[in-house]
Amino acid sequence: MVLVSLDRHLELPVNRRTRARILRPAGAGLAVLVLAACTATNPVTTNEPYSLSDGVRVTLGPVTAVNLLVVSAGEGEPGVLSGALTNDGADDLRVTLTTAGETTGSTVDVAGGGTVYIGTGSDVGETVQVASVDAAPGQLLTLTLTSPAAGSTQVQVPVLDGTLPQYASLVPTPTPSR
Length: 178
Description:
Elements: E1 2-7, E2 10-14, H1 16-36, H2 38-41, E3 56-60, E4 63-72, E5 79-87, E6 93-99, E7 106-110, E8 115-118, E9 128-130, E10 140-147, E11 151-160, H3 165-168
Parallel strand pairs: 4-11
Antiparallel strand pairs: 1-2, 3-4, 4-5, 5-8, 5-9, 6-7, 6-10, 10-11
């Protein structure tokens, strides 16, 4: 048995169980403080831009391209690019989108402060055709974004087919040959 002095006039006997009951909450409080300090040095992940869907994200100057992907029935088949371009700048920009295997790309004009949707399967936005996709569904395809005012960047975009219902209406049908 140990005597614990709370002040000069009062001494209480403390056995092992009582000491453990006193020290456990203090230890838990110390652990909370130590572990909480770990978040002070780590960035908050949700503050970092990331791709929310199946496509990828890339920035070219003031233009941010989001959810970029190619939809095609298969390798060597025609495809369509899907995603969106947002211009955070004040000036209008022309962006050229070129996939691997293409010699010329498709140009999309993005107004300052505006957004252009690409390949949405509706009347809203632009259609960016890919004559022949150089990758099978499930693989990645190189896409180059170029703008005279912002330079050029490359990104690997996923190739998807119509297996997922949200992309089934986007799969282009091949043009019959005579």
